[in-house]
Amino acid sequence: IVVCLVVLGFMLWFTWAVPGWLGFTREDRIAVQFCGTKKSLATGLPMATVLFAGQPVGLIVLPLMLFHMAQLIACGSLAGRYARRWEAAQNHVA
Fold first, then answer.
1. Are 33 and 12 spatial neighbours (Cβ–Cβ below 8 Å)?
2. Cα–Cα distance, 40 to 64 (Å, whole number)
3. How wide is the angle at C-alpha 9 spanned by C-alphas 2 and 36, nearest 5°?
4. 3-class SS shares of the chain: helix, strand, coil, % to 5
5. Is the pLDDT of residue 17 over 70?
6. pTM, whole model, 2 decimals?
7. What's the pLDDT score for residue 94?
8. Given a cut of 70, is residue 73 above it in pLDDT?
9. What distance in Å separates the CA atoms of residue 15 and residue 73, rounded to the nearest whole number?
10. Phi, psi of 82, rounded to the nearest 5 degrees
11. 57 Cβ partners below 8 Å, 6+ apart?
């Protein structure tokens, strides 16, 4: 679990920092962050079934399931935070 959280945290930071260094706008940085960290069970489970044919896949995909759950929670929290900041900025401008 700790390794999954560290990998997710690093990737969220990396996909936010690199576009910033490259001069992307805030909106583009958000898009890169959400798209760059997406790995899902929908793609990972079929690949694991093919790669590990003949073996019990349950324990093999457990890290993917944990990463996916942590990803949904973290990205949901980030999306809410970004939305609140955008709404605050819109209210401040108006």
1. yes
2. 8
3. 125
4. 80, 0, 20
5. yes
6. 0.72
7. 58
8. yes
9. 17
10. -65, -40
11. 45, 48, 49
